[in-house]
Amino acid sequence: MIFLNTSNDMLTLSFDTSFKTAAVALLRDEAILYDVILNNSFNHSETLLPAIEQACRQLRLKIGDIDLFACTLGPGSFTGLRVGVSTLKGLLLATGKPAVGVSSLMALALNITDDAPLICSVMDAGRGQVYAACCGYNDKGILKQISPEEVIDPRDIIFDSKLQVTFVGEGAIKYRDLLAGKAGKVKFASSRHQHIRASAVGILGCEKYHRNELLNPDTFVPVYLRAADAKPGRPLFDNGRNIIKS
Questions:
Q1: Spelled out in words, what is the top-level CATH class assigned to the domain 113-194+229-238?
Q2: CATH class of the domain at 11-105+195-224
Q3: pLDDT over threshold 70, residue 163
């Protein structure tokens, strides 16, 4: 049984383990109460639960006080995603509270403000490839994913668009020289915006909760993207194909 909070005062615990850093946050509705990034180089299995306990202890909360859990499901490090998903399942079993899964690339894109016409999240996937997806804000200021998540050779990223593109993520920094000429106008996010914040996971998670996009505790799994998913030579963003919807 899943226990839903029907009040307007909802506590969300969110976390991310999809790449090198881990992150934990607590939110009351969309107000950020606690937000930390742990630069632990993939030791997520050792640091995530203590970080969650520290967050709750600092705010004098118990796990049972949490109304919603939100976690990145991928794409990202296979090991990191497994740690996040197994932790999320454990919390669901222990509390019976609802949970939502969030795209790691969308959470990364939320680091960029809503005056950016087009945001391309790029994370290093290893073996000369990147995970990438395009996002943008609709006229209500809500971030929307407008191209599928893909694993792709950065040389094959193509933009059929005159919009300014803002690249964000460690993959964008690693392949900056390759990406600089991919669109008419290109910007790169500052170094402080290159990591996923758990508060962004929580904000996106709250939006999914209110759309009733809850995870089934028995069936949800990490979102792995593999080399077979790559689609070389096709525009990642196409004005005629990708539309920012309300």
A1: alpha beta
A2: alpha beta
A3: yes
